[in-house]
Amino acid sequence: IHNWHGDVRCGLPLDVGDSVEILEECGPWFRGTCPRRPRVVGLFPKSYIHIKDLNKVDPVVAECTQVLREWSEIWKKLFVERETYKFTTLRKVMLSLLESRRELLGLTLTQDQTLELQLKVISKIDWGNR
């Protein structure tokens, strides 16, 4: 729901749209991990997150997440092989997909805006898979 800078001892910094895995509940805090920092376990306030029912995840968001994971491996390979143009282009598309994913997860869009954004995400995924 809100960015959290992790301003406490053992705090886990989070950005709006991040997913977290909750490991433990500690009063007004949760202890858990974030996929962006898979080896880091830390604290974050309960009031800063929204708990979602995993059975109700938007399929476009799920596809976007999977594609970003796959593309990150390709992106690393392009960096190692010094394919500068492809590396830069893929980086821009991945950052755009990440931002769109955050917006979709934020649940602040109207139905029309959500549908329009979903179509843009699908279009970018199709472009990248060519």
From TrEMBL:
Q: Which Pfam families match?
A: DOCK_N
GO BP terms, alphabetized: small GTPase-mediated signal transduction
Q: Which InterPro entries match?
A: DOCK (IPR026791), DOCK_N (IPR032376), DOCK_N_sub1 (IPR042455), SH3-like_dom_sf (IPR036028), SH3_domain (IPR001452)
What GO molecular function annotations does the UniProt record carry, in alphabetical order? guanyl-nucleotide exchange factor activity; small GTPase binding
Query: What GO cellular-component annotations does this UniProt entry give?
Result: cytoplasm; plasma membrane
Question: What is the name of the protein in this document?
Answer: Uncharacterized protein
From what organism does this protein derive? Phlebotomus papatasi
* Taxon lineage: Eukaryota, Metazoa, Ecdysozoa, Arthropoda, Hexapoda
